[in-house]
Structure formats: structure tokens, C-alpha cells
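Backbone Fold Data
Goal — C-alpha cells
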Amino acid sequence: MNKRTLFAVVLAGFVVAACGTFGTPGSGGGGHGRPPPQPCNGNICRLDVPVTVVTFIGHEQVVIGPVPDLVMAKGNHGLEGKGVSILWHLKNSRYMFKDDGIAFYSDSSASQFSGKGTGGDGAEFHWIDANTDSNSYGYQIKIYDRQSGTWATLDPTIINQK
């Protein structure tokens, strides 16, 4: 087996194994039999975003996560009913968020989410969730390498419970 084939096989195995740790999108599950995350009851819900760089035969592969699905507690509408702040925080200073760091897939997300932006010199991203429906919202996390500008993505879910 040549190096390219070996690299492809190992990388494919790693990706398949890593994907299994994220659970089923929208399920709220943590994968591998882990229970779903506890609903967020606070005015601020924080999600740490771990980032690891794996080097194999001279090639770097960026691995984001796992980032669990976020479940908003029923009745949690944030401080003075103005929405719950969701704060994503990168756990690797080599990477940063830009304005497209957290993007929702559904057009209907505009009725629930507002006030997006970055902070902490690109280490943080935030949205405000009104949490006034019972829908699940898939989204993409997109991070950029500060030096090269290359990017990597992950696709978790926010689950509102009204």
C-alpha cells in the first residue's frame, strides 16, 4: 500500500470515527450512547469549540469539536425577555471566527436569531436566540486559520423548546 492510499484509509477511518461522536443532528444526543445535553437555563449559553490539528504523513487535518447540540430550556427567554445570548468560544488561538463564523441553514432562523457578531479578537462569536418556537436549527461553524486564511467547518444544531 503506498503512502497516499494509507493516508486516505487512515483519514477516512478517523473522519468516520469522529462523525460518530457528534450524534444525530437535531437529536440533542451526544453520540455513542451519551445522554442529550442539559437544557440551557441561563441568560448566556456558552459553547466551547475545541480545535485540533492532526498531522499525518506531512498533511495537516483540522478537526473541530465535538460541539454538542444546544438545547434551550422551555420558557428561557433571557434577561428581561430579550433573548438568550449564545456564545461560541474557540479553544485554539491559531484559529478565529469571521463574520460568517456561525451561519444558520434555515431562512426561518431570522425570526429567532439576531445580534450576530464576533468578539475576543475573533475567538468568540455570538447570536441572540428569542427561543419563542419549538424548532431545531442546524447551523455551520466556520473557523479560519489566522496565518493561512484556510477554513474548516462543523454542523451542529440548536433545539428550541419555546
Remarks:
- Residues 3-159 form a domain with the Immunoglobulin-like fold (CATH 2.60.40).
- The first helix runs from residue 3 to 19.
- Residues 98 and 122 are 7 Å apart (CA to CA).
- The longest strand covers residues 136-145.
